[in-house]
Design goal:
CATH superfamily: Ribonuclease H-like superfamily/Ribonuclease H
Oligomer: single chain
Shape: globular
Number of strands: 5
CATH class: Alpha Beta
CATH architecture: 2-Layer Sandwich
Largest sheet: 5 strands, mixed
Radius of gyration: 15 Å
CATH topology: Nucleotidyltransferase, domain 5
C-alpha cells in the first residue's frame, strides 16, 4: 500500500429531504481529479456518505488515504459508531435501525480496501479543497434542475 491519496468530500441538499448533491476532490501527488453527482430526493447525510463512498470507490487500488470531511456524522459514524452498529446487527444503542444502513454498509466495504486517516475540517472556513468539494456538491444539485 504505497499510493498516498488525499480526498476531500462534501454533500449538499436543498431542503432536507430534497434535491441533493455530493462532491469529491481527489489529490495524488500533483494530480487532481474532481467528481460530483446528485439525487432528486435525498438528505444531506446521505449525500455526505455518498461523497465518501464515491471518492473511495474511484481509487483503482488499495491506498493510504487522508480523508477530509466537514461532516461529523460521517467521521464519527465510521470511527466511533459503526463497530457497535455491526455488533448489534445494525441497530443503534437505542435498538433502532441505523439510518442510511445501505450507505454505511457500502462505505464499510470501500473502507476495507484502504488504510484511511479520517479528518474533520470546519466547513466554509476557507480550506480551498473543502470549498471546492462544497462547490462540486452544489453543482450536483444544480445539474438536477438544469440550472
Amino acid at each position: 500500500m504505497s499510493a498516498k491519496v488525499v480526498l476531500y468530500t462534501d454533500g449538499a441538499c436543498k431542503g432536507n429531504p430534497g434535491p441533493g448533491g455530493w462532491g469529491v476532490v481527489l489529490r495524488y501527488g500533483d494530480a487532481c481529479k474532481t467528481l460530483h453527482g446528485g439525487e432528486a430526493q435525498t438528505t444531506n447525510n446521505r449525500m455526505e456518505l455518498m461523497a465518501a463512498i464515491r471518492g473511495l470507490s474511484a481509487l483503482k487500488r488499495a491506498c493510504e488515504v487522508e480523508l477530509y470531511t466537514d461532516s461529523q456524522y460521517v467521521r464519527k459514524g465510521i470511527t466511533e459508531w459503526m463497530k457497535g452498529w455491526k455488533r448489534n446487527g445494525w441497530k443503534t444503542a437505542a435498538k433502532k435501525p441505523v439510518k442510511n444502513e445501505d450507505l454505511w454498509r457500502a462505505l464499510d466495504e470501500e473502507v476495507a480496501r484502504h488504510r484511511i486517516n479520517w479528518h474533520w475540517v470546519k466547513g466554509h472556513s476557507g480550506d480551498p479543497d473543502n470549498e471546492l468539494a462544497d462547490e462540486l456538491a452544489n453543482r450536483g444539485v444544480s445539474e438536477l434542475s438544469g440550472a
